[in-house]
Write a sequence for this structure.
């Protein structure tokens, strides 16, 4: 359930980040945009749950900043232990037409139903979405017999011989 809440919040924020900053908060109207605030690269561990009902969770912090150049950062926390932060900057990769995707990095943290704190940090750039965290499953090591078979097949393929 918390994963869905975090995912829904990320989608909403990502969608709102695609809109330009308020048209009245621009240098054209004499009100310059505030300089972007640095956002920590990792979210602190999830706080102790203050709300026992995920549907009744309240937002205790919500910071957002969208710059005219397309860069943004946001962070929010809820009283049930969910914390999210992300910052993104357009990166010009050139090309014709120019390719200028937003490169983002951020993190999120929450408490799993079993009470385990979950914390994931990520980078999303030209190499794709790259999450990191202790709770992300990893593949088991390749058994020795399979590794030997793969080495044998590689030698056979490079030697040009057939099976």
């Amino acid at each position: 359930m918390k994963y869905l809440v975090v995912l829904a919040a990320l989608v909403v924020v990502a969608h709102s980040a695609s809109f330009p900053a308020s048209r009245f908060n621009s240098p054209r109207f004499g009100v310059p945009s505030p300089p972007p605030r640095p956002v920590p690269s990792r979210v602190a561990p999830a706080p102790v749950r203050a709300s026992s009902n995920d549907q009744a969770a309240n937002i205790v912090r919500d910071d957002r900043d969208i710059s005219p150049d397309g860069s943004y950062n946001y962070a929010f926390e809820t009283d049930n232990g969910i914390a999210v932060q992300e910052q993104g900057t357009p990166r010009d990769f050139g090309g014709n037409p120019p390719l200028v995707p937003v490169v983002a990095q951020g993190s999120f943290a929450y408490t799993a139903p079993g009470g385990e704190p979950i914390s994931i940090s990520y980078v999303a750039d030209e190499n794709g979405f790259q999450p990191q965290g202790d709770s992300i499953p990893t593949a088991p090591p390749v058994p020795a017999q399979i590794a030997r078979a793969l080495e044998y097949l590689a030698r056979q393929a490079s030697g040009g011989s057939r099976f």
Summary: Residues 19 and 66 are 9 Å apart (CA to CA). The radius of gyration is 22 Å. The helical segments are 2-17, 144-159. The chain has a mean pLDDT of 76.
